[in-house]
Amino acid sequence: MFYKERTIIKLEGVTKVFNVKSQKVTAIEKLNLSIYDGEFLCIVGPSGCGKTTLLRILAGLEQQTSGRVIISPREPEKPLNSMVFQGDSLFPWMTVKQNVAYGLKMRGVAPKDYEKVVAHYINMMGLSKFENAYPHQLSGGMRQRVSVARAFANDPEILLLDEPFGALDEQNRILLQQELLKIWEGTFKTAVFITHSIDEALILGDRVLVMTAHPGRLKAEIKIDLPRPRDTLSMRANKRFVELYEQIWSYLKEEVIKAKSAV
Protein backbone atom coordinates (compact mmCIF):
# COMPACT_ATOMS: atom_id res chain seq x y z
CA MET A 1 0.00 0.00 0.00
CA PHE A 2 1.11 3.58 -0.40
CA TYR A 3 0.81 6.32 2.14
CA LYS A 4 -0.93 9.30 0.61
CA GLU A 5 -0.22 11.43 3.65
CA ARG A 6 3.54 11.21 2.97
CA THR A 7 4.99 12.84 -0.13
CA ILE A 8 8.30 11.38 -1.25
CA ILE A 9 8.73 13.53 -4.41
CA LYS A 10 7.36 17.01 -4.94
CA LEU A 11 7.71 19.07 -8.12
CA GLU A 12 7.02 22.78 -7.94
CA GLY A 13 6.78 24.68 -11.22
CA VAL A 14 9.32 22.46 -12.95
CA THR A 15 10.27 23.57 -16.46
CA LYS A 16 12.95 22.13 -18.74
CA VAL A 17 14.19 24.03 -21.80
CA PHE A 18 16.70 22.57 -24.26
CA ASN A 19 18.83 24.55 -26.71
CA VAL A 20 18.45 22.86 -30.10
CA LYS A 21 20.25 24.41 -33.08
CA SER A 22 20.20 27.89 -31.53
CA GLN A 23 16.52 27.54 -30.67
CA LYS A 24 14.94 27.02 -27.28
CA VAL A 25 12.65 23.99 -27.02
CA THR A 26 10.50 23.58 -23.92
CA ALA A 27 10.15 19.89 -23.03
CA ILE A 28 8.05 20.29 -19.87
CA GLU A 29 6.49 23.44 -18.51
CA LYS A 30 5.43 24.54 -15.01
CA LEU A 31 4.83 21.04 -13.75
CA ASN A 32 3.42 20.71 -10.23
CA LEU A 33 3.21 17.17 -8.92
CA SER A 34 3.26 15.14 -5.70
CA ILE A 35 4.32 11.48 -5.72
CA TYR A 36 3.50 9.48 -2.61
CA ASP A 37 5.55 7.01 -0.62
CA GLY A 38 4.99 3.46 -1.89
CA GLU A 39 2.85 4.57 -4.83
CA PHE A 40 3.00 3.02 -8.30
CA LEU A 41 2.54 6.07 -10.53
CA CYS A 42 2.11 5.67 -14.29
CA ILE A 43 2.51 8.52 -16.76
CA VAL A 44 1.05 8.46 -20.27
CA GLY A 45 1.18 11.04 -23.01
CA PRO A 46 1.88 11.49 -26.72
CA SER A 47 5.40 11.15 -28.10
CA GLY A 48 7.51 14.23 -27.41
CA CYS A 49 5.53 15.38 -24.37
CA GLY A 50 8.54 15.25 -22.04
CA LYS A 51 7.84 12.01 -20.18
CA THR A 52 11.39 10.73 -20.46
CA THR A 53 12.81 14.18 -19.67
CA LEU A 54 10.77 14.21 -16.47
CA LEU A 55 12.08 10.79 -15.49
CA ARG A 56 15.67 11.86 -16.19
CA ILE A 57 15.19 14.91 -13.95
CA LEU A 58 13.92 12.65 -11.16
CA ALA A 59 16.94 10.40 -11.70
CA GLY A 60 19.35 13.32 -11.50
CA LEU A 61 20.47 12.80 -15.12
CA GLU A 62 19.04 16.17 -16.20
CA GLN A 63 18.71 19.45 -14.33
CA GLN A 64 15.47 21.39 -14.57
CA THR A 65 15.75 24.90 -16.04
CA SER A 66 13.48 26.33 -13.36
CA GLY A 67 11.30 25.17 -10.50
CA ARG A 68 12.09 22.82 -7.63
CA VAL A 69 12.32 19.05 -7.20
CA ILE A 70 12.12 18.01 -3.55
CA ILE A 71 12.83 14.37 -2.69
CA SER A 72 12.26 13.17 0.88
CA PRO A 73 13.39 9.54 1.16
CA ARG A 74 12.11 7.35 3.96
CA GLU A 75 15.50 5.67 4.43
CA PRO A 76 18.28 8.07 3.37
CA GLU A 77 20.96 5.41 3.81
CA LYS A 78 19.56 3.49 0.81
CA PRO A 79 20.33 4.36 -2.83
CA LEU A 80 17.90 7.08 -3.88
CA ASN A 81 16.81 5.54 -7.16
CA SER A 82 17.39 2.86 -9.77
CA MET A 83 16.36 3.35 -13.39
CA VAL A 84 15.22 0.81 -15.97
CA PHE A 85 15.64 2.19 -19.48
CA GLN A 86 13.72 1.55 -22.70
CA GLY A 87 16.59 -0.20 -24.40
CA ASP A 88 19.12 -2.78 -23.40
CA SER A 89 21.29 -1.27 -20.64
CA LEU A 90 23.09 -4.41 -19.46
CA PHE A 91 26.87 -4.69 -19.43
CA PRO A 92 27.60 -7.15 -22.28
CA TRP A 93 30.79 -8.46 -20.67
CA MET A 94 28.97 -9.43 -17.45
CA THR A 95 26.84 -12.48 -16.77
CA VAL A 96 23.24 -12.24 -15.58
CA LYS A 97 24.39 -12.71 -12.00
CA GLN A 98 27.12 -10.08 -12.31
CA ASN A 99 24.72 -7.57 -13.89
CA VAL A 100 22.14 -8.01 -11.14
CA ALA A 101 24.83 -7.69 -8.46
CA TYR A 102 26.42 -4.60 -10.03
CA GLY A 103 24.72 -1.90 -7.93
CA LEU A 104 25.32 -3.75 -4.68
CA LYS A 105 28.97 -4.36 -5.58
CA MET A 106 29.49 -0.67 -6.42
CA ARG A 107 28.06 0.23 -3.00
CA GLY A 108 30.72 -1.90 -1.38
CA VAL A 109 28.38 -4.64 -0.15
CA ALA A 110 30.31 -7.84 0.52
CA PRO A 111 29.51 -10.84 -1.74
CA LYS A 112 28.43 -12.92 1.27
CA ASP A 113 25.80 -10.25 2.01
CA TYR A 114 24.47 -9.72 -1.50
CA GLU A 115 24.54 -13.20 -3.00
CA LYS A 116 21.21 -14.22 -1.41
CA VAL A 117 19.59 -10.98 -2.56
CA VAL A 118 20.85 -11.42 -6.11
CA ALA A 119 19.73 -15.07 -6.19
CA HIS A 120 16.29 -14.06 -4.87
CA TYR A 121 15.59 -11.57 -7.64
CA ILE A 122 17.09 -13.76 -10.35
CA ASN A 123 14.72 -16.51 -9.19
CA MET A 124 11.76 -14.09 -9.00
CA MET A 125 12.33 -13.18 -12.65
CA GLY A 126 12.63 -16.83 -13.72
CA LEU A 127 16.29 -16.54 -14.66
CA SER A 128 17.93 -19.07 -12.33
CA LYS A 129 18.94 -21.36 -15.20
CA PHE A 130 20.56 -18.43 -16.98
CA GLU A 131 22.49 -16.75 -14.17
CA ASN A 132 25.84 -17.52 -15.85
CA ALA A 133 24.69 -16.51 -19.34
CA TYR A 134 25.78 -13.30 -21.06
CA PRO A 135 23.32 -10.74 -22.47
CA HIS A 136 23.95 -11.75 -26.10
CA GLN A 137 22.77 -15.26 -25.19
CA LEU A 138 19.38 -13.99 -23.96
CA SER A 139 16.22 -12.85 -25.72
CA GLY A 140 15.08 -9.23 -25.47
CA GLY A 141 12.45 -10.15 -22.88
CA MET A 142 15.00 -11.99 -20.77
CA ARG A 143 17.40 -9.04 -20.89
CA GLN A 144 14.66 -6.76 -19.59
CA ARG A 145 14.01 -9.26 -16.80
CA VAL A 146 17.65 -8.86 -15.82
CA SER A 147 17.30 -5.06 -15.86
CA VAL A 148 14.26 -5.22 -13.55
CA ALA A 149 16.00 -7.69 -11.22
CA ARG A 150 19.05 -5.41 -11.05
CA ALA A 151 16.90 -2.39 -10.17
CA PHE A 152 15.12 -4.18 -7.32
CA ALA A 153 18.26 -5.90 -6.02
CA ASN A 154 19.92 -2.52 -5.48
CA ASP A 155 17.10 -1.78 -2.99
CA PRO A 156 16.51 1.87 -3.92
CA GLU A 157 13.94 4.19 -2.40
CA ILE A 158 12.47 4.96 -5.83
CA LEU A 159 12.16 2.91 -9.03
CA LEU A 160 12.14 4.85 -12.30
CA LEU A 161 11.03 2.87 -15.35
CA ASP A 162 11.09 4.38 -18.84
CA GLU A 163 8.88 2.24 -21.10
CA PRO A 164 10.85 -0.86 -20.11
CA PHE A 165 8.54 -3.24 -22.02
CA GLY A 166 7.76 -1.01 -25.00
CA ALA A 167 9.95 -2.89 -27.49
CA LEU A 168 8.74 -6.36 -26.50
CA ASP A 169 6.12 -8.53 -28.18
CA GLU A 170 2.71 -8.85 -26.53
CA GLN A 171 3.39 -12.23 -24.92
CA ASN A 172 6.61 -11.10 -23.26
CA ARG A 173 5.05 -7.80 -22.22
CA ILE A 174 2.21 -9.59 -20.40
CA LEU A 175 4.64 -11.94 -18.65
CA LEU A 176 6.92 -9.11 -17.56
CA GLN A 177 4.04 -6.98 -16.32
CA GLN A 178 2.98 -9.89 -14.11
CA GLU A 179 6.53 -10.48 -12.86
CA LEU A 180 6.99 -6.80 -12.11
CA LEU A 181 3.73 -6.71 -10.15
CA LYS A 182 4.71 -9.80 -8.18
CA ILE A 183 8.03 -8.26 -7.11
CA TRP A 184 6.58 -4.80 -6.47
CA GLU A 185 3.72 -6.16 -4.35
CA GLY A 186 6.37 -7.72 -2.11
CA THR A 187 8.20 -4.43 -1.56
CA PHE A 188 5.77 -1.54 -2.30
CA LYS A 189 8.60 0.68 -3.43
CA THR A 190 7.72 4.05 -4.89
CA ALA A 191 7.65 3.54 -8.66
CA VAL A 192 7.32 6.01 -11.53
CA PHE A 193 6.54 4.19 -14.78
CA ILE A 194 6.45 5.80 -18.23
CA THR A 195 4.32 4.05 -20.86
CA HIS A 196 2.43 4.66 -24.09
CA SER A 197 -0.01 1.87 -23.21
CA ILE A 198 -3.21 2.68 -21.34
CA ASP A 199 -3.68 -1.05 -20.66
CA GLU A 200 -0.26 -1.24 -19.04
CA ALA A 201 -0.86 1.87 -16.93
CA LEU A 202 -4.14 0.44 -15.62
CA ILE A 203 -2.68 -2.99 -14.87
CA LEU A 204 0.26 -1.57 -12.93
CA GLY A 205 -0.70 1.81 -11.50
CA ASP A 206 -2.29 3.27 -8.39
CA ARG A 207 -2.63 6.54 -10.26
CA VAL A 208 -2.28 7.56 -13.91
CA LEU A 209 -1.19 11.01 -15.05
CA VAL A 210 -1.99 12.20 -18.57
CA MET A 211 0.47 14.68 -20.11
CA THR A 212 -0.36 17.23 -22.77
CA ALA A 213 1.28 17.38 -26.17
CA HIS A 214 4.53 19.36 -26.34
CA PRO A 215 5.34 21.20 -24.18
CA GLY A 216 4.45 18.68 -21.49
CA ARG A 217 2.03 19.82 -18.81
CA LEU A 218 -0.20 17.83 -16.50
CA LYS A 219 -3.63 17.45 -18.11
CA ALA A 220 -5.42 14.89 -15.92
CA GLU A 221 -4.93 12.70 -12.87
CA ILE A 222 -6.91 9.46 -12.54
CA LYS A 223 -6.97 7.28 -9.44
CA ILE A 224 -6.96 3.58 -10.35
CA ASP A 225 -9.37 1.96 -7.92
CA LEU A 226 -8.89 -1.60 -9.19
CA PRO A 227 -8.25 -4.23 -6.49
CA ARG A 228 -4.83 -5.72 -5.83
CA PRO A 229 -3.26 -8.17 -6.37
CA ARG A 230 -3.92 -7.87 -10.09
CA ASP A 231 -3.77 -10.43 -12.84
CA THR A 232 -2.77 -8.99 -16.19
CA LEU A 233 -5.29 -11.04 -18.16
CA SER A 234 -8.36 -11.07 -15.91
CA MET A 235 -8.10 -7.29 -15.41
CA ARG A 236 -9.02 -6.69 -19.04
CA ALA A 237 -12.41 -8.32 -18.48
CA ASN A 238 -13.13 -6.10 -15.46
CA LYS A 239 -15.94 -3.59 -16.12
CA ARG A 240 -14.17 -0.88 -14.10
CA PHE A 241 -11.01 -1.47 -16.17
CA VAL A 242 -12.97 -0.67 -19.33
CA GLU A 243 -14.48 2.46 -17.77
CA LEU A 244 -11.07 3.74 -16.68
CA TYR A 245 -9.58 2.95 -20.08
CA GLU A 246 -12.26 5.03 -21.80
CA GLN A 247 -11.77 7.88 -19.32
CA ILE A 248 -8.01 8.02 -19.86
CA TRP A 249 -8.38 7.75 -23.64
CA SER A 250 -10.86 10.63 -23.64
CA TYR A 251 -8.11 12.83 -22.16
CA LEU A 252 -5.27 11.38 -24.21
CA LYS A 253 -6.88 11.26 -27.65
CA GLU A 254 -6.96 15.06 -28.05
CA GLU A 255 -3.29 15.34 -27.10
CA VAL A 256 -2.23 12.59 -29.51
CA ILE A 257 -4.05 14.40 -32.33
CA LYS A 258 -2.36 17.68 -31.37
CA ALA A 259 1.07 16.03 -31.33
CA LYS A 260 0.56 14.50 -34.78
CA SER A 261 -0.71 17.74 -36.31
CA ALA A 262 2.37 19.57 -35.01
CA VAL A 263 4.80 17.26 -36.84
Structural class: alpha/beta
Distance from first to last alpha carbon = 41 Å
N-to-C order of helices and strands: EEEHEEHHHEHEHEEH
Helix content: 25-40%
Strand content: 25-35%
Tell how many strands the DSSP assignment holds: 9
From the 3D structure, determine the CATH topology of the largest domain: Rossmann fold
Q: Which CATH C-level class of the largest domain is it? A: Alpha Beta
What's the alpha carbon Rg, rounded to whole Å?
18 Å
Count of all domains: 2
- Note the main sheet: 6 strands, mixed
| Shape designation | globular
What distinguishing features does this structure have?
26% strand; 6-stranded mixed beta sheet; 3-stranded antiparallel beta sheet; Rossmann fold; globular; single chain; 263 residues; alpha/beta; 2 domains
Could you please describe the fold and organization of this structure?
The strands form two sheets. The protein has a six-stranded mixed sheet with strand order 5-6-7-3-8-9, sandwiched between helices. A three-stranded antiparallel sheet has the order 2-1-4, covered by helices on one side. The protein is α/β, with parallel strands linked by helices and 263 residues long. It has helices at 51-59, 96-106, 111-124, 140-153, 170-184, 198-204, 239-261, and strands spanning 3-20, 23-37, 40-44, 66-71, 81-84, 158-162, 190-194, 207-211, 218-223. The mean pLDDT is 91. The chain has two domains: 3-80 and 156-261, Rossmann fold; 89-155, no CATH class. The longest helix has 23 residues, at 239-261. The chain contains seven helices and nine strands, in the order βββαββαααβαβαββα. It is globular. Strand 8 (207-211) and strand 9 form a beta hairpin. Helix 2 packs parallel to helix 4 and helix 3 (111-124) crosses helix 4.
